[in-house]
Amino acid sequence: MIKRIGWLLTITSLFSACEPFNLDRFEFPKCLPPKAGIAYKQDLLDVELSLDTPTGDIGSVGWDLGDGRARVGNPVYHHYAKPGTYTVTIVIANSCNDVFRTSRTIKVNG
């Protein structure tokens, strides 16, 4: 019985073979690489961070706020615990897996 099922599966797979993969019919996403600078406004220890002059296709924006915290989105708002100089980094990605990364030093006054 097991031999008969195996033989039947082999015969069935011969007649139900998959269609060959055709790259000409597949549409790859078309994206412009993302790019932007970092803009910020502050009110004492409260800071608003946003993209400055963004270009290309931007899907997601991740922020390293320089104090051990991170945020996602644009713009983002953050309250720093104390005044100081922080290096803020953004990572921007799009649906084509293009990634752009840049940093900026900001000075937070209390």
Question: What's the helix and strand layout?
Answer:
Elements: H1 2-15, E1 35-43, E2 46-55, E3 60-64, E4 70-72, E5 76-79, E6 84-93, E7 99-108
Antiparallel strand pairs: 1-2, 2-5, 3-4, 3-6, 6-7
Notes on the protein architecture:
This protein is 13% helix and 46% strand. It has 110 residues and is mostly beta strands. The radius of gyration is 25 Å and the shape is elongated. The model has no long low-confidence stretch (mean pLDDT 86).
Can I get a quick summary?
The protein is mainly beta. 13% of the residues lie in helices and 46% in strands.
Order of helices and strands: HEEEEEEE
Binned strand content:
over 45%
Low-confidence stretches: none
Quantity of strands, as a count: 7
**Helix proportion:** 10-25%
Biggest sheet: strand arrangement: 4-3-6-7
Give short descriptive properties of this protein.
110 residues, mainly beta, 1 helix
